[in-house]
Amino acid sequence: MANAGIAGADKLPAQASSNGHGLGLNYLEDCVHCGLCLASCPTYLTTGVEMSSPRGRIAMVRAFGDGRGAFGSELVRHLDQCLGCLACQAACPSGVVYGRMLETARETIEQRYPRPAMDRWTRRLLVNLFPYPGRLRWLLHGLYWYQRLGIAQVVRAAKLLAIVPRLARMEAALPPVPAPSSWNGLPERTPAVGVRRGTVGLLVGCAQRFFLPDLNRATVSVLAAAGYEVFVPAEQPCCGALHLHSGDLNEARRLARGVMAAFERGNVDLVVANAAGCGAAMKEYRDLFHDTPEWEGRAEAFSARVRDVSEVLAHVSWKGTLKPVPVSVAYHDACHLAHAQRIRVEPRTVLRQIPGLRLIEMEESDVCCGSAGIYNLLQPGMAEPLLERKIARIREADADFVAAGNIGCLLQIRKGLKDAGCRTQAIHPVELLDWSLGGNARRQPR
Amino acid sequence: MSGALTQDLARICGAEHVRDGETYRIGGRIPETAVRPGSEEEVSRVLALACASGAAVVPWGSGVQQTLVAPPIRYDIALDLRRLDRLIAYEPGDMTATVQAGMRLDVLQHRLAVQGQFFPLDPPHAERATVGGVVASQQSGPLRCQYGSARDLVLGVRVAHADGTITNAGSRVVKNATAYDLTKLYVGSFGTLSVFLAVTLRLHPRPAAERGFLVSGGRLDALHGFALQLLGSHLAPSRMELLDVGAARGFPGDGPQLVVSFAGVAEAVTDQEGTLRRLARESGVTVAEIEDADAFARVRDFPGLSNGRAACWRGGVLPSDGAKALEAIRAAMATAVSVEGAATVSHGTLRGTCRAENPEALVQALVEARRVLEGLGGYLIASDVPAVTQGRVNVWGTPPTEYELLRNLKQAFDPKGILNPGRLLNL
Amino acid sequence: MRPETRSRLLTACQEIVGADAVISSPDELRVYECDALTTEHRAMPDLVVLPTSTAQVAALVRLSAAEGVPIVPRGAGTGLSGGAIPVDGGVLIVLTRMTRVLDVDLANRTATVEAGCINLAITRAAARRGFFYAPDPASQQASTIGGNVAENAGGPHCLKYGATTNHVLALTVVLPDGTVTRFGDRIADRPGYDLRGVFIGSEGTLGICTEVTVRLLPEPEAVRTLLVAFRSMEAASRAVSAIIAKGIVPVALEMIDQETTRALEAYANAGYPTDAEAVLLVELTGLRAEVAAEGPIVEAICREHDCLLLKAAEDEAERMLLWKGRKSAAGAFGRMTRNYYHQDAVVPRTKLAAVLTEIAEIGRQFGVRVPNVFHAGDGNIHPLLCFDARLPGEYERAMAAGDEIMRCCIRAGGTVSGEHGIGIEKREYLRLMYSEQDLAAMRRVQRVLDPAGLCNPRKIFPEEAVA
Fold it and tell me: How far is Cα of residue A99 from the mean position of the Cα atoms in its chain?
């Protein structure tokens, strides 16, 4: 199976070093201003303003590169507002590697731009929290009780956080924290069911292991049923996506090395992710270490073995072991599946394999839901309208479930569906497959 | 003035092409002179002369369209363009033809038929009409259903202005997005902005087969609903004319009728016939094939021209209001002795006659009918009325909201007001 | 613009649309200095405003008129002739926030939308009920209907269905003095002059349209798509003529030359044979019986004309695959040359073969590569002049070749613009097609509607043509 890799990977110039020797923006001259990217850009669809579009962001960055514009608060604001969904990169007929520009720009901002204090602290807090399970566990214990004891309701009703609107919105965006007892780890080795066709490693993800522990359990179960031995190293760091997208490439590399080492230990054929963002980040390791001789080969080899779980499962023939699941399912294309990894067909194949399941194609299935990592916490003004838009489309599809292959999307959409009182439930395609294999009884909606 | 004018015109066009205006009467007026120029150059010089002396000019083709607008408020020269009747350029492979304005439609169609093509405009009395007249009046016939109107079929024009200047607008090719599309302005301007010298037309292949059907057995609104259903389906009728009881008198059967035709590849026509019959059965109406070769022409020419006791009217509403409008008109024209009406269903355009015992009754009928149509957001034009009622009923009804702009445009193109003065919307 | 004027305008605009709908900082204004025309024409507006209603647009126009300041309307900015570039500065009125579909009336087969509504969104709104909006410019997923109206946009569907002007029934227009009026009507043949028809294609110089009422068509029953590769361009042109001569009007007749085919195959792998001088994409739509009858005729004609390959699509997936190459042409261009100038001209179909030969000769003469993609059915050609702006002389040679190509098209009886409009780019070429009097007649109309001359100034007309 060929690894689709990151879109446009064949055109990537040398990665700008973390010390930032110039921005190397020549590839932006590929942009001919045709404007076709506007059609795919969720932030442009929301604001109608050119600077919210890839074409506009490229123009601002080029203007800076040409010495005609400043690297000021406006440029930073518009770059911050970018979701990094890469829908534009997939749509661009000229092959402009927008994602590369975004990463370079974010790195530059991170290193050179003096953000206002509150902004800086919020970002630092979030980026230093989520990717570190130890710290996150600590916080989540607190948040669990904050929610369980009803403190959350009191705070919201009394609008105690209203003084700091950003904090209030972040609080509102908090997903329900599952009971700590469910945060159990997974066994390091799960044997294949029947004939073993290979060994795969599973990335459990930082937020996922806490917020959707059942998903990882279901994934292991399904992969085993598919004939794979599943290796889940207990000490696996975050994949580094958050740091990669925030411009802290040094930390991203450190985490990446940890991930690679963890899985190399397990002698796996493939490394599987069930979160689009993580899978995309791991496929990017080959570029992250492009100019680092010691790791270049290892990263290349590692990235070549990374798969989204749907890429693996789409090729499995279940030979009648699937039980009917008579529900209707609308499919949401997570950005880092559809755009970054160009994976659209495989998840749909997986769903179509399930007998009795009716797949519904919804309008704007590949327009970002507004989650985008921690974007929904940092840019609520954009994340909220995008979520509303997504919920409206889900409503129109009127399905029993909406399936998405990414934790961020699932949490975001779940919250939106609950707030809108919509009957549709959000679920990961793997959970449906697990259901069909006779796995866990359908969990209660959150 | 008359002697000098005639002499000047004779010097331009030759004495044999200048005569008195007796046969060019419009409404109550006869022009002093009628002139038949033989070239663009001559047209230009005639207009320049008229402009200099402030003489009012009415362009003429075959005259079948003259009653579509009000009579001129001044009338000195009838400018007969029928000597400009050549086919200037015809390239069947391009499906375009450039013809002089005075060419008769039937002559043009014969030339095109040789190549298996035709120009799909079928206004009333199409055989006699000139291309220039048809285009200046934006007149359509039943074929509009499939092919559109003059504005969709004219690619470019060559016109002479009030002061004699000759200009081109549009192009000779089927696709063009170059500067202002003045062809749209001139088409349908009834000779009030400029005079057509030549027109480049978009042609179509002659359909291999064409068959017509008469649908009947329902009330007017039921037939109309049926027609709308057909138009919203995959069917592609070339004609869809709704005739009320009065208008349907020439056809077999009683009651209102729907005239439907399909044109194209034979298999497709037969296929559509099948669908038509099936849908008709489901709706409880009957279908009979039209065998009469003149039927299409009769529908096209309805209602004809007014006479002593009857006025001809035309109007428009939303297509979905077609039947409602016809019935409302019939009811409104209570003072009339007889009312006949027809609608081109796809476009909601209406036409008909009304006859009354005396002029007062006729006027009242028209006024009431207009009130009804304007109440539906539409309009009624009463330009073709018996002489005795002329001037007693407003030709146009409520002026359009952008009237000021129209007046300014007229003023810009014809500052001295010599082209068909007062004929269109009193401009 | 004087600072006091700008400051007054800024305050007043903010009062009309709200502060978050006014853009005034230089770094942000710079983003609006060009549309999809990327040659040297750039100009920053003084202010950018994003209204959300006709009333707001009218207020903005009145305000600008009172201050004697130019206004420039803009949609998505995908125009290729520079129509949305504010050459004299002024207030750029961007309609991208007016995207609502106001009414879909299937009984009358019309839809009314705000001018900022995206072209494809109109079809999407009607598709559920089996209708569509026909004009399909290449930019249709991003361009707004208001922009389409301004340029009389075309697209491959033009051949059978006509351009924007054949599908727009009515417009709500804010005139340059701020009055709101309606051109055209859903009710046909209202007496008067067709201001709707003049406004369409007037490139934003006669006012700003804020609402558009369009005609909807029922989706065709059947579609048949063929990919045909011809050994020679000559054979391909003759085949096209033969198809037309048979009385068949396909909904698309797209032709790609060899240079383009080679480039897009390297990039898109669409299965187009690279040894073919011309690749033709034919699409027939209509009634099932019609398409079933016409399909074999078209195939027979192609076979008679020395075709190397003929593929017919059996289902929608295959149809998308056949179109994939044609739709990748734009991307292929981006990869085959560093810079390019995307031209647009029309020639009579019967002259197509001769003109293409002449264009190839012009390319050789000037040392410029000129791949070509064109709408063979209506003679609308898009020669692409390739150059590398970094190398001395290449740009000049490319422009000179382009100039010669324009003249060649006019000589053949064509026009200087099939669908892109005149804008800034082709002002001087107008004189190739129209005399001073022709232009004066147009200027007359402009003066009636825009006496102050502040509505998208310096577009369309050659600089010196003052009637």
Answer: 15
Residues A106 and A186 in one domain: no
Q: What are phi and psi of A272, to 5 degrees?
A: -105, 140
Element (H, E) at B384: strand B379-384
Q: Which of A30, A32, A71 to mutate to test the interface with C (most CBs of C within 10 A)?
A: A32
CATH class of B87-205: alpha beta
Q: Mark whether A407 and A389 lie in a shared domain.
A: yes
Please name every residue paired with B379 in a beta bridge, in sequence order, or none if there are none.
Answer: B316
Which DSSP symbol is given to A177? Answer: P
Phi, psi of A136 (to 5 degrees): -65, -40
Largest Cα separation within chain B, whole Å, is 72
Q: From residue A169, how far is each of A207, A374, A383, A412, C461 by CA, in Å?
A: 19, 13, 11, 13, 54
For chain C, how many residues are written? 467
B87-205 matches B2-80 in CATH topology: no
Q: What are B349-388's pLDDT values in tens digits? A: 999 999 998 899 999 999 999 999 999 999 999 999 998 8
Strands B154-160 and B166-170, sheet pairing: antiparallel
Q: Say whether B271 and C446 touch across the interface (CB within 8 A).
A: no
pLDDT tens profile B286-296? 999 999 989 99
Return the CATH number of the domain spanning residue range C3-94.
3.30.43.10
Q: How many CB atoms lie within 10 A of CB A358?
A: 15
Best C81, C181, C195, C287 member to test B by mutation, with max B CBs in 10 Å, is: C287
Q: Low-confidence residues of chain C, pLDDT below 50?
A: 466-467
Which element (helix H / strand E) includes C352?
Answer: helix C352-366
Q: Are strands B33-35 and B77-80 parallel, antiparallel or unpaired?
A: parallel
Report residue C300 as tokens.
Answer: 């027979």
- Distance from C-alpha of B333 to C-alpha of B328, rounded to nearest angstrom: 8
C-alpha gyration radius of chain A: 21
**10 Å Cβ neighbour count for B287?**
18
pTM, to two decimals: 0.92
- Say if CB A234 and CB A134 are below 8 A apart: no
> C residues 369-408 near B, CB within 8 Å?
375, 378-380
Residue B273 contacts by C-beta under 8 Å, 6 or more apart in sequence?
B211, B213, B262
Q: Nearest to residue A105, comparing CAs of A62, A67, A143?
A: A62
Residue C349 has its nearest CB partner, among B94, B206, B413, at B94
Cβ of C334 within 8 Å of Cβ of A72? The answer is no
Cβ atoms of B420 and B137 within 8 Å: the answer is no
Write the pLDDT tens digit of every residue in B249-268: 888 888 999 999 999 999 99
Is the pLDDT score of A21 beyond 70? no
**Is the confidence at residue B337, as pLDDT, over 50?**
yes
Task: Kindly state whether C369 is in contact with chain A, defined as any CB-CB distance less than 8 angstroms.
Answer: no
Rounded Cα–Cα distance for residues C112 and C101 (Å): 6
CA atoms within 13 A on the CB side of A357: 25
Q: What does DSSP assign to residue B130?
A: B
Peptide bond before residue C383 is cis, with ω within 30 degrees of 0: no
Architecture of domain B2-80: 2-Layer Sandwich (3.30)
Of the candidates B149, B157, B150, B126, which has an alpha carbon nearest to the alpha carbon of residue B62?
B126
C-beta atoms of B234 and C287 within 8 A: yes
Q: What is d(CA C376, CA C380) in angstroms, rounded to the nearest whole number? A: 7
Instruction: Map tokens 């942000």 to a residue.
Output: C28
Which pairing describes strands C380-387 and C372-375: parallel, antiparallel, or unpaired?
antiparallel
Whether the Cβ atoms of residue C267 and residue C335 lie closer than 8 Å to each other: yes
For the segment A306-313, the average pLDDT, to the nearest whole number, is 97
Q: What is the CATH number of the domain that holds A432?
A: 3.40.50
Q: Which residue has the tokens 């070749």?
A: C401
Strand order in the sheet with A358-360: A358-360, A328-332, A401-404, A425-427
